[in-house]
Amino acid sequence: MGYDVDTIFQIAGIGIVVAMIHTVLKQMGKEDWAHWVTLIGFIVVLYMVATIVDDLFTKIRSVFLFIGS
């Protein structure tokens, strides 16, 4: 569970790139594609966060149940 600041920068980078693509597509008149890009970016970030939270709960469970991992 060796997460550090890199994960935060990855999530922020994905957010910035998705926001730029969304803005460009919206300016081009392709609002439906812009919304799809935003949705896909949200799903990717949600998967990253869910993985981190799962690791956290596994670590908490191993501490309180005294399971060596």
Question: What distinguishing features does this structure have?
Answer:
single chain; 69 residues; mainly alpha; 2 helices
Characterization of the model:
This protein has 69 residues and is mainly alpha-helical. The protein has one domain (5-64). The chain has helices at residues 5-27, 31-64. Helix 1 (5-27) runs antiparallel to helix 2 (31-64). The protein is elongated, with a radius of gyration of 17 Å. The N and C termini lie close together (11 Å). The relative contact order is 0.13. The model has no long low-confidence stretch (mean pLDDT 90).
List the helices and strands in order. Answer: HH
Task: Provide the β-strand percentage band.
Answer: under 5%
Shape: elongated
Structural class: mainly alpha
Computed Rg: 17 Å
Question: pLDDT under 50 segments (min length 5)?
Answer: none
Mean pLDDT over the residues: 90
Helix content: over 70%
Count all strands and give the number. 0
> How many alpha or pi helices?
2
- First-to-last CA distance: 11 Å
Count of folded domains: 1
Instruction: Please give the largest β-sheet.
Output: none
List the SSEs and their pairings:
Layout: H1 5-27, H2 31-64
Helix pairs in contact: 1-2
Quick synopsis:
The protein is mainly alpha-helical and 69 residues long. It has helices at 5-27, 31-64. It has one domain.
